[in-house]
Write a structure and sequence with these properties.
Layout: E1 2-3, H1 7-13, H2 18-21, H3 31-34, H4 36-42, E2 52-53, E3 73-74, E4 81-83, E5 86-89, E6 91-92, E7 95-96, E8 98-103, E9 106-116, E10 129-130, E11 133-142, E12 152-156, E13 159-163, E14 166-173, H5 176-187, E15 194-206, H6 209-213, E16 214-222, E17 227-229, E18 234-235, E19 241-245, E20 251-255, E21 260-266, H7 274-279, E22 287-288, E23 308-311, E24 314-316, E25 375-380, E26 386-393, E27 398-405, E28 412-423, E29 454-458, E30 461-465, E31 472-475, E32 479-482, E33 494-500, E34 507-518, H8 521-531, E35 540-543, E36 551-557, E37 563-567, E38 573-574, E39 578-586, H9 587-596, E40 605-612, E41 616-623, E42 634-641, E43 646-653, E44 659-661, E45 665-668, E46 671-675, E47 677-679, E48 685-687, E49 692-698, E50 709-712, E51 716-718, H10 722-729, E52 737-745, E53 755-762, E54 767-771, E55 780-788, H11 789-793, E56 802-810, E57 815-817, E58 824-826, E59 831-832
Parallel strand pairs: 1-11, 4-10, 31-35, 32-41, 52-59
Antiparallel strand pairs: 2-28, 3-4, 5-9, 6-7, 8-9, 9-14, 11-12, 11-15, 13-14, 15-28, 16-27, 17-18, 17-19, 19-20, 20-22, 21-25, 23-24, 25-26, 26-27, 29-30, 30-31, 32-34, 33-34, 34-39, 36-37, 36-40, 38-39, 40-41, 42-43, 43-49, 44-48, 44-51, 45-46, 45-50, 47-49, 52-55, 53-54, 53-56, 56-57, 56-58
């Protein structure tokens, strides 16, 4: 089925007067009707995560997400198939069905288009139904036939009427100059004319597995005695686990409600998939996280280090040629368990070629710590979802990273509008009168007008006057800026993802973003007054459409802090709807960019080079600042009271950051020349995300049911919140932690006769143990420092420093350690453990 009109497309084609530009918000939701290719790329920046089962979809479905006129679509609940037809110019009796003739409105161009399936569907389409769609027909041609850089004119056919085999499209031309320009475009190949049939259709698209499965993710802290909900990622009284503090040393992670839990030990966090989480044996038993020292007496006659006893009579890690058989007393070692807690020494690794060593009493028998740094546990939440959780930093307040997955269910879908273009096979769309005289009815030979753009200037800006519609002036934007989402909440249209580099400790950051053209309304309003001398009937502005994509140079920081401008030849730049780009950076480079987004420092910027008529070029800057983005900030609801002449308005802050309303003005859409008064609030006002204010707009002109207040939000400042913006742009499936290697060393001379072992507890890593009788190679240890990516980028940690605590086990079994909660800070690498880095010995 074909809808004969596309209201959105027609509205988009209308020019905007200067006064409207000053108050009309950017229509970002209409980009798909301007440039379908760009719109499809933009849609991939952040995929929606909310969907419905297939049986709730009301339109045909693309089962694999492909949108094309070369595939069959499926009905949601039965076997019916659908296809999207193509359109071509009809031919009858060996004549092309095009007519240019007089009409009641002046002149008109009529084209008959017939439907047909794509060749690959020629047979399949016979048993399929036509997909419901809307159509617009566009004639595009150069504004100057002698200059391909002069821009393009787009004429949208105002009338589309269904016919038995297709449609009839009519373009009304109000003046002779308009008629003559179209005539030349249809008869002169230098105009490079193209006929485009733009089809828009609503279809069901499947959500990707990733978008469907991830409920929440991130890094955070569970405070001692608090509960944590892994579905929402916050501490709450309705949590899935309780970080229970029985005493100052006895702790456990206790599931709450219907939640269950299981310990996985030290694991590669990123390698744990949802399939494994679903298969685990969960229980209601808590996971022990106590600070425990085991009481054991080591046998006298064992004469070397004990690595780990795995069998009653064999010592793993001991050379069998050197140590034949173990004393029967070694059997006692099988009962030993390591003191598995941050900062403690595993007893079964203490050298024992000395008198017996007795470790201090265990505060509670049969307790251990399964929540050391790097260890992982899994949670089946109260909602039935599955979370993997890794301990980043053990303590009374335990720092974690987590990812919560929704269990696989029936596939989820969403309904979306997609737009596809098809060009006529006649390229260029030219029909010489000598071959097709029947097309041009009553068109004489008075069509030799030399049409060309007229260059105008106002306040240093360039404008180009249309050769036929003399009241139309084409302009270039002031700049390109980052843009907010058209739908609410209006988060930044950006996406960042962190991925470790295989075989390296480096981390790469991928950024995707959409930049949108921005023009200062005041500039156009001032230009309109200057340009009236060339168009007494009034001034209308339209963005200049270029034939070829302008050239983008993206500026990114180098190691020395300077900018490296990189040519982006594969990026499609459109002067009406902007561009979408992506790049991959190192962590350090991205951190510089993220910091610069919140300041006037331009470390992430670019330039768009536009070729213009008469071999001129202009450079349009791209600026990236999160407090100065294009797009909506508020969700606005209005209620009209015709009797009192007022409009009750609720403004809701629909972005991630607070805003400050310094001033606010409004006009009524039926007469944008008339200002209104606003009551109900005293400015300035700060609004937190999600907060609203209620205002009354008092009109001085009569209102009707279609009246609306049109606001000028130029007096509103965004108070950019670094963390909130981070949360709104980071991908849910992105790696949450960054690991880097640290080498820790010591020398055998540090032990002397008094020290049996030294443990170094890294605050953002694991505990390292050095033994007195260790071989030299065991006095050099490589370990990982784990830092949440969020903390690094948000400058919450010093990425060049690290904290640690030291513990010493003396030969007599006494433990001496740095005070609890006090950490030593260091930035040098490797970390050498010398006597000054140990606690004072008694």
């Amino acid at each position: 089925m074909t809808n004969i009109s596309d209201r959105t497309t027609q509205q988009l084609s209308q020019a905007i007067s200067a006064i409207e530009i000053a108050t009309t918000p950017v229509r970002l939701d209409q980009v798909k009707w301007i440039n379908p290719d760009l719109a499809n790329k933009i849609a991939l920046i952040r995929e929606p995560i909310n969907g419905v089962p297939r049986n709730q979809i009301t339109v045909p479905i693309s089962s694999d997400g492909t949108v094309s006129d070369e595939i069959l679509y499926e009905a949601p609940t039965d076997e019916t198939k659908y296809y999207l037809p193509r359109y071509r110019v009809s031919e009858r009796n060996q004549q092309i069905q095009i007519l240019m003739a007089e009409s009641p409105q002046g002149w008109s161009l009529t084209i008959h288009l017939e439907k047909y399936p794509a060749p690959v569907l020629q047979n399949k389409a016979r048993s399929a139904q036509e997909l419901t769609h809307s159509i617009s027909v566009i004639l595009q041609h150069r504004l100057d036939p002698n200059d391909p850089n002069a821009g393009q004119k787009e004429l949208i056919f105002q009338e589309i009427t269904p016919e038995p085999e297709g449609i009839k499209a009519v373009l009304q031309l109000a003046s002779l100059p308009e008629r003559d320009l179209v005539y030349q475009a249809l008869t002169n190949t230098a105009y490079a004319s193209v006929l485009i049939v733009r089809r828009s259709t609503k279809i069901g698209l499947p959500l990707s597995q990733t978008a469907t499965s991830i409920v929440s993710s991130g890094t955070g802290t569970i405070r001692g005695t608090w509960l944590f909900n892994f579905d929402t990622g916050v501490e709450t009284d309705k949590g899935d686990v309780w970080w229970q503090q029985e005493t100052d040393v006895l702790r456990k992670m206790t599931p709450r409600g219907n939640a269950q839990i299981v310990s996985l030990g030290a694991r590669d966090f990123d390698a744990i998939a949802v399939e494994e989480l679903r298969s685990l044996a969960y229980s209601s038993n808590p996971i022990d996280g106590s600070i425990v020292i085991w009481r054991k007496r080591l046998p006298i006659d064992i004469v070397d280090r004990i690595d780990r006893v795995t069998k009653p009579d064999i010592l793993r890690g001991v050379d069998p040629d050197r140590f034949k058989r173990v004393s029967p007393k070694a059997a006692e070692i099988n009962q030993l368990r390591p003191i598995d807690v941050v900062g403690r020494i595993p007893v079964d690794r203490i050298p024992v070629k000395r008198p017996p060593i007795v470790i201090s009493d265990d505060p509670a028998p049969n307790r251990s710590n399964q929540l050391t740094n790097g260890s992982v546990f899994a949670v089946r939440t109260n909602s039935g979802n599955f979370a993997k959780v890794q301990v980043i930093e053990y303590g009374y307040n335990i720092k974690i990273q987590w990812v919560t997955y929704r269990p696989p269910a029936e596939p989820q879908f969403r309904e979306a509008t997609r737009v596809l273009d098809i060009q006529s096979d006649y390229r260029p769309f030219v029909f010489p009168p000598s071959l097709h005289p029947y097309i041009y009815r009553n068109i004489g030979d008075s069509n030799n007008t030399n049409f060309k753009l007229d260059f105008r200037q106002s306040n240093g800006y360039s404008y180009y006057q249309d050769p036929a519609e003399r009241n139309v002036f084409y302009y270039l934007p002031d700049s390109f800026k980052l843009v907010r989402r058209p739908e609410s909440p209006h988060y930044p249209m950006m996406s960042i993802e962190f991925q470790p580099v295989e075989g390296s400790e480096e981390m790469q950051v991928s950024i995707e973003f959409w930049a949108y053209p921005f023009v200062n309304p005041a500039r156009l309003a001032a230009a309109a007054k200057d340009l009236e001398q060339y168009s007494p009937s009034g001034v209308e502005f339209k963005p200049l459409v270029t034939e070829s994509s302008p050239q983008l140079f993206l500026g990114l920081p180098k190691e020395d802090g300077s900018l490296d401008y990189r040519d982006r030849p594969n990026v499609l730049v459109e002067m009406r709807s902007g561009f979408r780009d992506s790049c991959t950076l190192s962590m350090k480079a991205f951190q510089k960019i993220y910091n610069a987004l919140f300041t006037a420092t331009q470390l992430f910027q670019g330039q768009v080079k536009v070729s213009l008529p008469n071999s001129k070029t202009e450079i349009i800057p791209f600026t990236a600042q999160v407090d100065d983005m294009v797009g909506e900030i508020f969700d606005v609801t209005q209620s009209i009271d015709i009797t009192t002449g007022t409009i009750q308005v609720a403004l809701k802050n629909a972005i991630e950051s607070p805003v400050r309303i310094n001033s606010l003005s409004a006009r009524i859409n039926s007469n944008l020349q008339v200002q209104t008064t606003i009551t109900g609030a005293a400015f300035p006002i700060d609004l937190a995300p999600g907060a609203s204010i209620n205002l009354t707009v008092n009109s001085s002109i009569p209102l009707n049911n279609s009246s609306q207040a049109v606001f000028d939000f130029s007096g509103v400042d965004v108070l950019a919140d670094r963390e909130a913006i981070w949360n709104s742009i980071v991908r849910l499936d992105s790696t949450a932690t960054y690991k880097r290697k640290l080498e820790v060393r010591t020398v055998s001379g540090i032990f002397s006769d008094r020290i049996a072992a030294i443990s170094i507890d890294l605050k953002s890593g694991t505990a390292i143990t050095f033994l007195r009788d260790a071989t030299p190679d065991r006095l050099i240890v490589q370990t990982d420092l784990i830092t949440p990516v969020r903390d690094w980028i948000l400058n919450k940690v010093d990425t060049g420093s690290y904290d640690y605590r030291s513990q010493v086990i003396l030969s007599n079994g006494t433990s001496v350690e740095d005070p609890a909660g006090q950490w030593r800070s260091e930035s040098r690498e490797p970390l050498w453990i010398t006597t000054d880095k140990l606690p004072p010995l008694p």
